Amino acid sequence: MSELILASTSSARRALMDGLGLPYRAEAPGVDEVVSPHLSAEDAVRELASRKARAVHQRHPEAWVLGADQLVEVAGEILSKPQDRNAAREQLGKLLGHTHAIHTGVCLVGPDGQVHEAVETARLGFYALSAEELERYLDLDEWVGCCGSYRVESAGQALLERLEGDRSNVQGLPMVTVVRLLRSAGFRFFERR
């Protein structure tokens, strides 16, 4: 198989990919992440995942490139990465005590021009927190660089009251979907390296 490149420098996505045991490397896609505000959350993550995968693929046309993007949606509003602590407080205020969706788009582009795409959605319910508990969570800085202002692979898992869907999707890369796309592209698993 050709080289596999993850079009992301996210530590959470790399940790999930590491678990597969496939050789790969990570590279920052370096793309504009602004999309039309008229797109649904699902269409936005599909477009951004494709944009990231294609940007890295242009630099390495002989490789397979996996791109992903994620957005949180609550009551019809799309939440992306907060700019500062106040924005994170505001985002979490919309999520605490409520159910929201997290959508992750995945795009795999191959050396022969093949494109495999999918969008995975999980639904999460968060506990209602006191203002003091929310501030203690914000003090951990887990909100930095995270759409929705939380990380479920760290202390943020204590926010979770319920989860419907693939937990790895919430962490940034829906591995059931990723494995399906890689298998359909011909990748082989469990081989000695």
Task: Give an overview of the whole structure.
This protein has 193 residues and is of the alpha/beta class. 32% of the residues lie in helices and 24% in strands. The protein contains six helices and seven strands. Strand 1, helix 1 and strand 2 form a beta-alpha-beta unit. It starts with a strand and ends in a 9-residue tail after the last helix. InterPro entries: ITPase-like_fam, Maf-like. Its cofactor is a divalent metal cation. Its main location: cytoplasm. Its EC number is 3.6.1.9.
Question: Helix and strand layout, with pairings?
Answer:
Elements: E1 4-6, H1 11-18, E2 25-26, H2 41-59, E3 64-74, E4 77-79, H3 85-95, E5 99-109, E6 115-126, H4 131-139, E7 160-164, H5 167-171, H6 175-184
Parallel strand pairs: 1-2, 1-3
Antiparallel strand pairs: 3-4, 3-5, 5-6, 6-7
GO biological process, one term: nucleotide metabolic process
Active site: 69
Protein name: Nucleoside triphosphate pyrophosphatase
